[in-house]
Write a structure and sequence with these properties.
Blueprint lengths: L8 H16 L3 H15 L5 E7 L2 E6 L6 H7 L7 H8 L4 E3 L1 H4 L8 H7 L4 E12 L2 E10 L7 H9 L1 H15 L7 H16 L7 H11 L4 H8 L3 H15 L4 H15 L1
Antiparallel strand pairs: 1-2, 1-5, 3-4, 4-5
Helix pairs in contact: 1-2, 1-8, 2-8, 9-13, 10-12, 11-12
Length: about 270
């Protein structure tokens, strides 16, 4: 089709075979492995991570990497600042977030990216957000790590076109996983505490406008983007940032982020 990337017939066949195996799997781990293999037929050298976003609890991480340090720290509070989580809170239907959609402008130069994503080698990401119900969405994160190149336009098109098949297979995997996932009151309590910590961070000392600026800085937005979003002049943004740093006794965006996660850790 015009404007679409051409996908070889054998690639399509291999992809659909893996999706079919995922839909026929009797256990969640097998289903996730087949979904990862299916996506591997479309893009090479791209590890896949799985989980479920929840409005009232931290993300539920699934798959063989669920217990590693990166995923543990993600569920311990880093998810609150992730653009993908922000997109989940706004979504009304399943979507495939391409790199230009998943991250705000200048995100890769933000302190959040540099302190959380970059040390783990994340170069690029395409993220499926697959709506399960009003309060949950499965996520399938396809990443390029280490010295890999970013996703090409053709690869992004391939992944985008795979959305319906990935959604069907991931719904099946989540249904298989659900019986092993009891109601987690402790997780809900942790989410409430973390969300309250984010809401209260700096409120005792910052003005309402400074609080708005500070939260956008925490989410990785550059000062010039903050100014555009809040419709305030660059000089005014700089003055707000200077005041925020002084009141919170930090000297940089890196120290601001560190102070925030220190509060999250204590609150959690």
């Amino acid at each position: 089709m015009r404007g679409r990337a051409t996908v070889p017939v054998d690639t399509v066949a291999a992809f659909l075979a893996q999706i079919n195996d995922a839909l026929c799997s009797a256990g969640p781990d097998a289903a996730l492995a087949h979904i990862a293999a299916a996506l591997g037929t479309l893009v090479a050298d791209a590890p896949v991570y799985f989980g479920v976003y929840r409005r009232d609890a931290p993300p539920l991480v699934m798959g063989p990497d669920a217990g590693d340090e990166w995923n543990r720290s993600y569920s311990d509070g880093h998810y609150l600042l992730d653009p993908s989580y922000e997109a989940f809170l706004r979504m009304t239907q399943s979507i495939c977030l391409l790199p230009r959609d998943a991250f705000p402008r200048d995100f890769r130069s933000s302190e959040f990216y540099l302190t959380f994503y970059r040390p783990h080698g994340m170069v690029d990401e395409v993220c499926y957000l697959l709506r399960l119900d009003a309060d949950r969405a499965a996520y399938v994160s396809v990443m390029r790590l280490g010295g890999s190149r970013a996703f090409s336009s053709a690869e992004c098109q391939r992944l985008g076109m795979a959305l319906p098949a990935v959604e069907a297979a991931m719904r099946h995997a989540c249904q298989l996983h659900a019986p092993a996932t009891p109601v987690d009151d402790a997780g809900r309590a942790l989410h409430r505490h973390l969300s309250a910590a984010m809401e209260s961070f700096g409120r005792d000392t910052l003005s309402e406008r400074e609080t708005e600026v500070m939260r956008l800085l925490l989410k990785g937005l550059a000062p010039k983007v903050v100014g555009r979003m809040l419709d305030i002049a660059p000089g005014t943004v700089r003055n707000h940032i200077k005041s925020i740093y002084t009141k919170l006794d930090v000297r940089s965006q890196a120290e601001l982020l560190a102070a925030f996660f220190e509060v999250l850790g204590a609150r959690g």
